[in-house]
Amino acid sequence: MTQQHFSGSTFKRCSCKHPDTRKRLGATCPKLKRRNGTWSSEHGTWYFQAELPHRHDGIRRTRRRGGYATQTLAQDVLDKMAALVEAAEPHGGAALLAIGDLIDDRLQTGEPLPEPEEIAQQLNAGTRALGNQIPTVAEWLATWLARRRKLRGGTKLSYSSHIRLWLEPYLGHYRLDALTVEHVAGMFDAMAERNDAILAARASDDPQIRKSVRGVRTMGAATMQRYRATLRAALNAAIRDPKLNITFNPASHVELDSGKRPKALLWTPERVERWKRTGEKPSRVMVWTPEQVGRFLDHAEGHPYYVLLHLIAYRGLRRGEACGLPWWDVDLTAASITITTAFVQVGWTPEFGEPKSEASGRSIALDNATVDVLNAQKQRQEALRLAAGADWAEHGLVCTELDGSPLHPAKLTDAFHVIADAAELPPVRLHDLRHGAATLMLAAGADLKVVQELLGHSSIAITADTYTHVLPELAHETAEAAASIVPRRGQHQLPPAA
């Protein structure tokens, strides 16, 4: 069991030197071995070479010591080292690192090694017998994630994915207090190199190479920023832990592209024409014009999920908020709904949970058309309840499957794309239909604060970053309004040409 973290061997050496160069002969001294190749018992002393567990920075730790009168004495020291490493192995990398440090220290000072039984007993009892056992990055990430008991399922899945795919494989072996900016930057360099390899494969003349990366996605700046955010949060938690004595967060000092959310762009006729010609979207976030939203909803009318698509398009609900909306949070008399829950996917499995953030829990005013749609949905659902009879599974949701069970969010997404294709509309994501609600508000003259509250953004900066350039005509109207504030005597004219 110890071979992975410890290995050792014994050999003989002497102090004989070459008569001309005066360099030690080492293993080449003819007196060290008999004619039959066995070690001489009358010349030289015994040494050992040991490979201890790697240092905190991953560097190998090879140690040699000598002067032993017999091979048995040298081997006894090796066996004791191996037993100490074996005692630490069940307790993980931090214990192995500490054992390596302890053995290294004793070899340098000449103090005797502790008894393996004593160390094993202390480790099993959970004591910090080996001094301040700073965990490795991998061990701390696991501890940090286990302590985050109040995380939303999707957030925990995201953190777990970041740790499993990149943080642990590339940084996990470093001791927490030895992690540097260079280590973290190296991980992001590896991500960039992976991107380059994928792009090169896509451009290859070899169809097999192109096929090998089909469906493989590169990592954009925003994705790298999310990985950095996970690592930074974990290291900040380590800084707050007084037992660790960590004072520096290298993830905060790595330079990365900003990864700012892309500006939402409107599907203007010019952009639609270019998309039809090239198949390329101008931006990852594209928004339909009010006319295109209307065409979509006209095609969606009569669909079993129409009420949810209408709520997203008009009132900006998130997909999980729409799928998880219960009737008890709908007040048709007061024409409002309250967002208190969400039905979201964690991996593939959907589950009920709280809204995305504190700002996501909000009250939303309803227009008359939306109230009419919800009233019609009540009547439709009552008919479904009667048809299902005893098979109806009551969950109290606004939109369900035919038997009353919750609607899987992915089915809503699939229905959205089928309807959009049938309407021959340029491509947007279902989430971009929510952006369309903001577009309608801005086109109607609402200010950004109102749009922020409608969408449940945690900061108005998010709203501004995403939507300030959605409608070109709004920017033009703003410029005209600003110019009209400045008093002028008459029409401003350029001086005549000389």
UniProtKB/TrEMBL annotation:
Which Gene Ontology terms cover its molecular function? DNA binding
According to the entry, every stretch annotated as the Core-binding (CB) domain falls at: 135-239
Among InterPro entries, the record links this protein to:
CB, DNA_brk_join_enz, Integrase-like_cat_sf, Integrase_catalytic, Integrase_recombinase_N, Integrase_SAM-like_N, Tyrosine_recombinase_XerCD
Domain Tyr recombinase, chain residue ranges per copy: 283-480
What PROSITE patterns does UniProt report for this protein, alphabetically? CB, TYR_RECOMBINASE
Record Gene3D superfamilies: 1.10.150.130, Intergrase catalytic core
- Pfam families given for it? Phage_int_SAM_3, Phage_integrase
The answer to keyword DNA-binding applying to this record is yes
Which region is the signal sequence? none
Q: Which GO terms describe its biological process?
A: DNA integration; DNA recombination
Ordered alphabetically, the record's keywords are: DNA integration, DNA recombination, DNA-binding
Which protein family is it in? Belongs to the 'phage' integrase family.
Against PANTHER family, the record matches this protein to: INTEGRASE_RECOMBINASE PROTEIN MJ0367-RELATED, PHAGE INTEGRASE-RELATED
> What is the official name of this protein in its record?
Site-specific recombinase XerD
Q: Which species? A: Amycolatopsis tolypomycina
